[in-house]
Specification:
- The chain has 309 residues and is mostly beta strands.
- It has one domain: Lipoprotein localisation LolA/LolB/LppX (outer membrane lipoprotein receptor (LolB), chain A, Clam).
- The chain is built from three helices and 15 strands.
- A hairpin with a 4-residue loop joins strand 12 and strand 13.
Length: 309
Amino acid sequence: MHNHAHPQRGRSALAGPPTLPPRPLPRSLSLTTLLTLKLLLALPLTLALPLTLALPLTLWPASSALAQTGREIMQKVNDRDDGNNQVSKMEMVLIDRNGKERARAIQSYRKDKGKDTHSLMFFLSPADVEGTGFLSYDYDAQGKDDDQWLFLPALRKTKRIASSDKSGSFMGSDFNYSDMTRPDLDDFNFKVLKEEVLDGQKTWRIEAEPKTEVTKEETGYAKSVIWVRQDNHMVVRGVRWVHNSRRMKYMQVKEVKQIDGIWVGTEMVMTTKEGKNTVHATVLKFSEIRFNQDLPESMFTTRRLEKGP
């Protein structure tokens, strides 16, 4: 399939932090993804999708765009066309505080089932993670917990990720398991803070605050601020206050392409900071993205997960 891609690139992932709302919430008060961009709210996250983002901001007077509520905008983020029956390759680069990099190769599959989304990833290299698989059922129904499983070949065992474990790091990266699926919008209060121009694109800056302590604990975040492009409803930047921690996470989508008419984030970064110090960063790069592939439902099962790539 011939894809017509039009890249749009952002600035350096390791730029200094932007001027942000208040310091992290105190422990007594203490997303994604998609995050992640499920991402980001991801992400899959919407995926999700991540660092210190010091891009010039241009503000303009309130307009009719502000008439939309934060919840209405986030519903459009979840509902936007992100393609179906997708196959792609991923590179995950882990960067420690000293700048040392470790790269991992991943094969990814995604299929819509009604309004739900099933995803499957296999780690291809290096040897210490080869054969590891991750299966996710991202349910559209509000209030229904997403299902996730991790297959560890060394143990020949599939582990179901409990809700209480979704705030944990996904395969040693700066993304949580909660970032690997779309958020349940009913669990958050959304507020449009302002409109801004980032990289020449109009965006909404939206605050997302969990309604309960349970959501904070399960997502791993006490609060998030995200930037949503007004032309295509993609999350392109995010700042997250890590629950019960002084650490913060900064997300940036560094490259966006339109493939077969579908807007896709092809490079994103999530950086964890404590104060001004970078603790760790993760870069995700997507390539060979193809839509409308023949993916049977039987591929998205724990049995297939355990067979490996």
